[in-house]
UniProtKB/TrEMBL annotation:
<keyword id="KW-0456">Lyase</keyword>
<dbReference type="InterPro" id="IPR027619">
    <property type="entry name" value="C-S_lyase_PatB-like"/>
</dbReference>
<keyword id="KW-0663">Pyridoxal phosphate</keyword>
<dbReference type="Pfam" id="PF00155">
    <property type="entry name" value="Aminotran_1_2"/>
</dbReference>
<keyword id="KW-0614">Plasmid</keyword>
<comment type="similarity">
    <text>Belongs to the class-II pyridoxal-phosphate-dependent aminotransferase family. MalY/PatB cystathionine beta-lyase subfamily.</text>
</comment>
<dbReference type="GO" id="GO:0016829">
    <property type="term" value="F:lyase activity"/>
</dbReference>
<protein>
    <recommendedName>
        <fullName>cysteine-S-conjugate beta-lyase</fullName>
        <ecNumber>4.4.1.13</ecNumber>
    </recommendedName>
</protein>
<dbReference type="InterPro" id="IPR051798">
    <property type="entry name" value="Class-II_PLP-Dep_Aminotrans"/>
</dbReference>
<dbReference type="InterPro" id="IPR015421">
    <property type="entry name" value="PyrdxlP-dep_Trfase_major"/>
</dbReference>
<dbReference type="InterPro" id="IPR015424">
    <property type="entry name" value="PyrdxlP-dep_Trfase"/>
</dbReference>
<dbReference type="InterPro" id="IPR015422">
    <property type="entry name" value="PyrdxlP-dep_Trfase_small"/>
</dbReference>
<feature type="domain" description="Aminotransferase class I/classII large">
    <location>
        <begin position="83"/>
        <end position="396"/>
    </location>
</feature>
<dbReference type="InterPro" id="IPR004839">
    <property type="entry name" value="Aminotransferase_I/II_large"/>
</dbReference>
Amino acid sequence: MHDLHRAPADAAAETTNFDEVLDRSTLSTVKWEMEIDRTGNKSLLGFGTADMDFRSPKPIAAALERTARLGHFGYPYKPNSYYDALIGFYKRHFGWEIRREWIAHNVGIYPSMRPLIDRLSVEGDEIIYQSPVHFQFRNIVAAAGRVPVANPLMLRNGRYEFDFDQLSRCVSSRTRLLLLCNPHNPVGRVWSREELARLAEFCQQHNIVVVSDEVYCGLLHEGAHFTPFASVSSEALMNSVSLLSASKMFNLTGLKHSQVIAANPRLMHEYLEGLKRDTSGYGGSLFGHAATEVAYRDCDGWLGDLMRYVAGNYAFAEAFFKERLPRIRVRPTESTYFMWLDLSDYGMSHQEMLDLFETRHGLVLNYGEDYGPGGEGHIRLNIGTPKSVLAQGLERMAEALSSHER
């Protein structure tokens, strides 16, 4: 059968101009256009929502164009080439051999969590999450009638680590799940094999199932090595469910497609049973399937180019803060296109920072208080943007903090 999703070899070789500032008059995004409508500020700069301001790889766009030209948009079927691409990506990059029978699907990472929560716990049970982490970790647990229990990460010598002593105190007879973020959003840690093995052993001993969000796994800075949680031991493999997607790596969040990996047949059964309660992802996204296959198979070079560009932005911003805003502490990162900034030296509340940066200076940022205990006084800055846009944002931040100090 002819592979409609495979890009010509010359398309895969084309590079993205990450310096290009996109014409926003043709776009409609949450990250920019929604925020401009919400605030009424047409000069606003968006550094919040976890999307990038870059075009996705050209082979992906070509695959979507080929799919659109066929003019048939019914329920999609995943061909063998789709599974080969997915399995190949995780083996090639991380040495993790995923078997086809371990793979299920959904429309996103957070929608994948709810069926697992519904089937592996009951109302009133406790679910641990490790803050500061994306607010949806806490929200989805609470919305399901379970009790979200924060086990804040520990800062040691400026580096975030798991706090195993506190984790022991978090566990009760009602603890059922632990939601892991690996790599961690927003702090940027890529957990080591040793850290994950210790966590796996702890959860195994306490009969706690690990649900691991690994959506940022390919967004690695130089020297960082990602370890899939399920790959650290046979116990970890059988006591966990991994949530994957090409969405964050290749800027595909609008295409609504993700993978759920469970080697344990019982956990896979519970996930699939949980899906019956909410059929919103039934059938899946035709365009999400097409984009995902090409992303996993043909876009390694683009991903490498992307992270070199993001690293350049990080170095640029870090130097800016050191010279112009030395009171901001930059937490070192190993992954993602975020910077996690500690502004606690300025003594501002969440509302004061919001008023200063957004209302008075037109900067949309993400504020640490929304990420749970340990996030207070911090900001998540999205640097997945052209350097010229980042430079404008940094200047506005400097102006804002200068006015605050006067």
